[in-house]
Design brief:
The protein is mainly alpha-helical and 197 residues long. The protein has one domain. The chain is 75% helix and 0% strand. The longest helix is centred in the middle third of the chain and has 28 residues. The protein is elongated. The relative contact order is 0.13.
């Protein structure tokens, strides 16, 4: 299977995920600004989830730009990632409607964490298939940003039991870290040595 087919399928699934999340935003019943008040937690959760899915999409795109080949291990690792991301609309709606309840807040973190682990697994498989001197292997030497993100989200999950607001703050922090995109692969692809290869 070509990399292009995997990317196109993944793009389609992610577009559907974002669309489902947008449908969760209900039109307020009143015509004044006070009618928006009850929707604020859901909108903020939606914004966080949109950013999270966008981060995964951006990094997934760069990862497959540098991927060497696609085999069944890559396909299943990619499907595993898409499975966890497909649960984002569910936990978005649940946490948005119950923003102070420990279980929905923790569930949001669990889905986010499992999606991150799935992405790391996909990345590991693709790097393992590449030669040690390949663009991908050279770009993904260490992943401090990814490890810090995993640690922050992991801390946020148990915090939901006693301080759901702290969990949410940690989830926002984990996404904010990625507002400055991970450009390791992009830089490696545009390096003179990779263009000459």
């Amino acid at each position: 299977m070509s990399k292009g087919r995997v990317e196109a399928f993944s793009d389609g699934v992610l577009a559907i995920i974002l669309t489902i999340m947008a449908f969760e935003l209900k039109v307020p019943t009143g015509g004044d600004l006070t009618a928006l008040g009850p929707l604020v937690p859901l909108f903020l959760t939606y914004a966080l989830s949109f950013l999270t899915v966008a981060i995964f999409w951006s990094n997934h795109h760069h990862l497959f730009q540098a991927a060497v080949r696609v085999d069944s291990a890559v396909l299943w690792a990619n499907l595993n990632l898409l499975f966890w991301l497909s649960l984002v609309p569910f936990v978005t709606g649940w946490m948005g409607a119950n923003s102070t309840a420990p279980v929905p807040v923790a569930a949001y973190g669990v889905v986010k964490l499992l999606a991150a682990f799935s992405y790391r697994n996909l990345q590991h498989i693709l790097v393992g298939q590449a030669a040690p001197a390949s663009v991908l292997a050279q770009a993904i030497k260490s992943d401090r940003k990814g490890l810090v993100t995993l640690a922050i989200v992991s801390c946020g999950i148990p915090c939901a039991a006693f301080a759901p607001w702290l969990s949410q703050a940690l989830y926002v922090t984990s996404a904010a870290i990625w507002l400055v995109p991970d450009s390791r692969i992009e830089r490696a692809l545009s390096a003179p040595s990779s263009r000459a290869a």
